[in-house]
Amino acid sequence: MTRLSSVLYQYVLEHSEAFLALMPEYPDCRRFSDEKEAALRAALSPEACIILDDLLRERALQHGAEREAVFQASLSLCRELYRSALA
Prior knowledge:
Helix content: over 70%
Strand content: under 5%
Radius of gyration: 18 Å
Largest sheet: none
Shape: elongated
Distance between the termini: 27 Å
Oligomer: single chain
Number of strands: 0
Order of helices and strands: HHH
Number of helices: 3
Structural class: mainly alpha
């Protein structure tokens, strides 16, 4: 990622919470997810909780890479739309 796209990506991440606030289903989705994780942890052994932590860490890295890829694709789309508008 270039320095400019990195700055733009950070801006998008910092301002994405405002858009999440506009999604009425997001708070419930987040709460349900937290509740299910808590219930799963309560049912697991300490060793299994460590595996779950590892899994969640890997999923977070995967999700971050996917978000970055979507951002890069969106940025590329914006460039193409700008170029077509100038043509």
